[in-house]
Amino acid sequence: MLPCVIVVFVLLSCACGENPAVQVILTNKGLQYGKHEGTGWIQEKLEKITFPDISGSVNIHIGRVYYTLSGVTIKKCDLPEPSVEFVQQSGLTTSIAGLSFALAGEWRNHFGLIHDSGSFDMAIFNIDVTSAVKLGSNAGGHLSVTSVNCTASVGDVSMQFHGGASWIFQPFVKYFKGHIIGIIQSKICPEVEDTIMNLDHHLQAMNVSFDVNEVLSFDVPLTGDPDIEPSNMKLGFKGEFHSIETHAEPPFVAQEFVLPELAGYMLSVGLSEFTLNSASFGYFSAGQLQAFINDSMIPPYIPFRLNTSAMGGFIPQLPKMYPGLLMNLQVNARDAPMFSFQPGSGVLDVHICVKASATESNGTQVPLFTLYIDSRFTGKMMIADGKLKGSMMLNNVTLTLGSSEIGDFKTDALENGIKSGMVVVLGKLNAKLGEGIMLPRMKHAQLVNTVLKMQKGFVGIYSDVQILQTDRSSYLSTSYL
Length: 481
Ligand SMILES: *[C@@H]1O[C@H](CO)[C@@H](O)[C@H](O)[C@H]1NC(C)=O
Ligand SMILES: *[C@@H]1O[C@H](CO)[C@@H](O)[C@H](O)[C@H]1NC(C)=O
Ligand SMILES: *[C@@H]1O[C@H](CO)[C@@H](O)[C@H](O)[C@H]1NC(C)=O
Ligand SMILES: *[C@@H]1O[C@H](CO)[C@@H](O)[C@H](O)[C@H]1NC(C)=O
Ligand SMILES: *[C@@H]1O[C@H](CO)[C@@H](O)[C@H](O)[C@H]1NC(C)=O
Ligand SMILES: *[C@@H]1O[C@H](CO)[C@@H](O)[C@H](O)[C@H]1NC(C)=O
Hints:
This is Bactericidal permeability-increasing protein. The chain has helices at residues 3-12, 28-48, 166-169, 173-205, 273-285, 317-321, 412-435, 472-480; strands at residues 22-27, 54-59, 64-78, 83-87, 91-111, 114-137, 143-162, 209-211, 216-219, 227-229, 232-237, 240-243, 267-272, 290-294, 326-333, 338-342, 345-359, 365-384, 387-404, 437-438, 445-455, 458-467. By secondary structure, the protein is α+β, with helices and mostly antiparallel strands. The strands form 4 sheets. Strands 14, 15, 16, 17, 18, 19 and 20 form a 7-stranded antiparallel sheet that branches. A 6-stranded antiparallel sheet has the order 10-11-1-13-22-21. Strands 2, 3, 4, 5, 6 and 7 form a 6-stranded antiparallel sheet that branches.
């Protein structure tokens, strides 16, 4: 019965002792929604469970009748909505009261040498089940779930026998009914505990690290046990990207942050700047932050040609030394671009090195100069109409001449040229960012009523979740069982 409430954890999915860089808060509202959505699934599951054969004997004054009830199938199951609650610093309790089943099956009995058989209808009323589980984390950073206790009781059973000499048998139901109630009662908790163990196996098998693309992998083991209060459960994840190739650790660590609770949302996610910076460092350490740029790669809307003649305005001696040659640029990040988040906005610092060369008509590359460009961008992010939108602004760009094969030159003009080039590029980028990108939509759930707040050191995303009704059963069965 528990799997339904863990749905929400699995939907998120996506180490110990360090600060979590990704924090997730599942509120009671989210728990109740998950439970409500899961109830239909439990009902479907219950209707498919197989009942074991029940055998016993009853003394009918003139001797002992041995009976077997077999081929029991569920005709109908009436499942009242269960209740699920967080338990302070422990886990969850789930209880169902008043569950009833209508069943049908075959009966066989023998009394001395007489064998007889027929069919029966059975109703089991008022089954109450309460189960408490502990949620924790294991050394591998997986969420773990273990059964703490379970109680089950069956209110009553009624039976109607058909066929054979069932009229002889029927009056004795009251004598063996207790035996049948006892058997059913004793099977419920082991069944619940099995389900919890299966769920735990499933959780242990989940990957806590996965490849995002061919360059980066993302590590999301839990950094500690879930922090559970009656109103919510907080989970902390490592949230670190690595280069698949180098697996180098970034030269910075996650800073502690407190994700504020915002009432009324099912789910809150805090994403620290460390997570973004580890991705940036991953690309950098994999040698991905470099580019070769030649004239034909510069889009026509940029007023900047990579031609020694066209560069005369910035570097007067260049067209004199090498007239009319095409140029190319080897661009490398000097270090990983770093994000830092502030309330309401974020800053991105980028430090690059540009080596310029000219191409002689015979193909020879002539090195011209090396520039260092330090730029700072300010950006905003927001979520509106189910889309992630943003804008980027150039704050500052500084050009420094590193070395030159063509003699010294003033960089002011070139700096202004690069600035206007960047402004044009940012204009195009902002048009795209303004249109927004759809929030990632999982196959079986989507985020609704989502808001994003930039804070010092992290962004907080607050959202409700909507489970898509289509195909729910197949999703749940594939992701759990
Ligand atoms: C079952 O465990 C829960 C949580 O630890 C506890 O609150 C409850 O009292 C226990 N119930 C029984 C019957 O032991
Ligand atoms: C877990 O990761 C491994 C290796 O990256 C992959 O082969 C496997 O299919 C993944 N398992 C799941 C359940 O995603
Ligand atoms: C620029 O580089 C691209 C890809 O390396 C190449 O296809 C193109 O011909 C180059 N253009 C010039 C003008 O060198
Ligand atoms: C570079 O620009 C000059 C003047 O704008 C032009 O005459 C020349 O053909 C260009 N060089 C190449 C290789 O395109
Ligand atoms: C290419 O031409 C330049 C001058 O036009 C010359 O200095 C250089 O030696 C030539 N390189 C080759 C490989 O021919
Ligand atoms: C631009 O950046 C440099 C160094 O990165 C700094 O000294 C300067 O004050 C900045 N200018 C502005 C206008 O922010």
